[in-house]
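Sample pair:
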Amino acid sequence: MNITEKLAYIKGLAEGLSLDNSKPEVKVINEILNLLEDMAYSVDDMEDLYDDLSAQVDEIDHDLAEVEEEVFDYDFDDYDDDECDCGCHDDFDDEDNPFYEVTCGACGQKLNVSEDVLLEGEIECPNCGELLEFDFSDLFDDEFGECDDCDCEDCKPTEEKE
């Protein structure tokens, strides 16, 4: 039973009581029922508009996927995360890109910084303009930050890629 059907049922119950319409409390009840009726029709209209909008968004999403496939010449459904089994690329997955809290040494401003920004090595504090530098060179196996047990193109040192 939808909202308008429930309201019709309640109005039928109220009419079945044979209330005296001249009494003030009955007038209030009738006005409340009229208000509920207006609200029920508004909700029905909004549900219809929502359904239309949802269908349009689905259509736009489908069209956008086709455009992305055409423009980028890449089928996102065919992407395989397991191309490289060494685990060296796991930390760079956009879906799992964590944020870290960094405090500016000059002004004390706390910043939420993505892992990608940290790996770039520096960021300017938006509060005071101080350059915040991050050094992760001691965390990597060699100067290029690659792993030693992977043969994928991304992990080969720069001089071997050429």
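The longest strand covers residues 99-103.
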